[in-house]
Design a protein that fits this description.
This protein is about 45% helix and about 20% strand.
Length: about 450
């Protein structure tokens, strides 16, 4: 997840009693909605998040994990979690909640033992070590080399000594975001990123600090276009049309236009910004409604005169309240759309949700919902057994039928548990990315 080639900015979220607080020693509330705060940091171009569990009692752990899961679901950037890790089970809870790394406090001897076991079970790339003093690094040098992929330096006053002792990438707390401080810190060969309260308070400076680092030949996660605006072919009004497509579903959401300023702001901020031909000015999609579009990719066509924007859409794209502006279809097109194999699972899942919301007499789906999770799981187990028998018999048609039955019962369980195909696909995408990163490291 981390190397020293790209310099990063990582704000902290301190969790206590389901709230974001000022720090480990302070219960002063920052936000009652930590997931929203995480999304704000991500919007402000944080490279990752460090979440610190400040709970004091064991029974608060489950509440923290639930909050952590919401945070991980609300952002597309890596999340690290530190604090109150007492066992391998705690590490697993953190990783399964969606975090990229668990940060174990090496001032606690038990955590040093857990780090080795966790690295063996979950992979070295999942484990970071939190260190306060240089001796915690030097005394565990061999273990860190074999079982830890990142050091999180927790004490500002020991930064220089810890950086000098470290042999792997470091994420360090800094006292401020002054240019001199940042350049001095990143001059150290093991410095991969900065974190701490100073980053929290100075998120508006991150964009200018990235430019500062670029000027000093450091690599940062700055958005820069492959094609300049001058290279694009504009219409007579000096605009370029943009076809907007949802990255998750491939659904076309809308068509809009960009001028040079909108193009630059979109790339710089990561939020889709357009030019209104009627109002003669730029506008950020979602600025008034909250239905922002976050950029996944911008692709130009062969003539360099049309942009295809793949986005993460929040809420509805259309001003009418429809998810897409393209909703005026006839019956024939709806039938053809339903036959699209890439849409059928979403369509069937939507039907299951509709049956739950609007029960229909004689519906098998409603029968399952009425009888609860145990009945659903029993039927899912039966379909699984029938699928195994069909596959063992090497009967393709029968196996296809059983797979379809199994998927239906699986979707009923998913609906009962509030799990969507998007959740599943995001988990698969996360695993694929981690596998690619691991292959690259090897």
């Amino acid at each position: 997840m981390y190397d020293c080639k790209v310099k990063t900015f990582v704000p902290c979220i301190f969790l206590k009693d389901g709230r974001a607080v000022m720090g480990e020693e302070s219960g002063k509330e920052v936000s009652q909605d930590p997931a929203h705060l995480a999304a704000v940091y991500a919007d402000e171009m944080a490279d990752a998040l460090l979440v610190v569990d400040c709970s004091e009692k064991e029974e608060e752990h489950e509440e923290m994990i639930s909050c952590l899961r919401s945070i991980c679901s609300s952002v597309q950037i890596p999340v690290l979690c530190a604090g109150n890790i007492r066992s391998l089970s705690d590490v697993k809870d953190i990783i399964y909640a969606g975090c990229g790394m668990a940060v174990l406090d090496f001032s606690k001897k038990d955590n040093v033992v857990i780090a080795k076991e966790a690295a063996e079970k979950l992979g070295k790339e999942r484990i970071a070590a939190g260190c306060r003093e240089p001796h915690e690094i030097t005394e565990n040098e061999d273990l860190i080399a074999s079982s830890v992929s990142l050091l999180v330096l927790l004490e500002e006053k020991e930064q220089a000594a810890c950086l000098a002792a470290a042999g792997i990438p470091c994420l360090g707390a800094v006292p401020d975001l002054e240019e001199k401080t940042i350049l001095s810190y990143f001059a150290e060969p093991n410095a991969a990123g900065v974190t701490g309260k100073a980053v929290n308070a100075g998120m508006e400076r991150i964009r200018s600090l990235r430019h500062l680092l670029l000027e000093h030949d450091y690599k940062v996660n700055a958005r820069r276009p492959v094609f300049s605006w001058e290279e694009l072919k504009k219409d007579p009004q000096g605009l370029v049309p943009v076809v907007v497509q949802e990255a998750y579903t491939d659904q076309v959401l809308m068509v809009a236009y960009m001028d040079e300023n909108a193009y630059s702001k979109t790339i710089e901020t990561g939020k889709m910004t357009y030019y209104s031909r009627s109002r003669k000015k730029e506008w950020v999609k979602g600025e008034t409604s909250g239905h922002f579009q976050y950029v996944r990719s911008l692709t130009l066509d062969c003539d360099l005169d049309t942009i295809l924007a793949r986005v993460d859409q929040v809420g509805a794209a259309c001003h009418t309240g429809h998810h897409s502006c393209f909703f005026n279809t006839d019956l024939v097109q709806n039938r053809l759309e339903r036959r699209n194999p890439q849409r059928i699972l979403e369509s069937d899942y939507a039907t299951i949700l509709s049956r739950r919301a609007h029960p229909k007499q004689g519906s098998y789906t409603n029968y399952l919902f009425d009888h609860g999770l145990d009945r659903m799981l029993a039927e899912l187990g039966r379909e699984n057994a029938e699928l195994i028998v069909a596959a063992k018999g090497k009967k393709k048609d029968g196996t296809v039928d059983e797979i379809a039955d199994y998927l239906y019962h699986l979707m009923v369980v998913m609906a009962h548990e509030g799990i969507t195909w998007k959740d599943v696909c995001e988990e698969l995408a996360k695993r694929a990315k981690e596998s690619d990163e691991k292959s690259t490291e090897e």
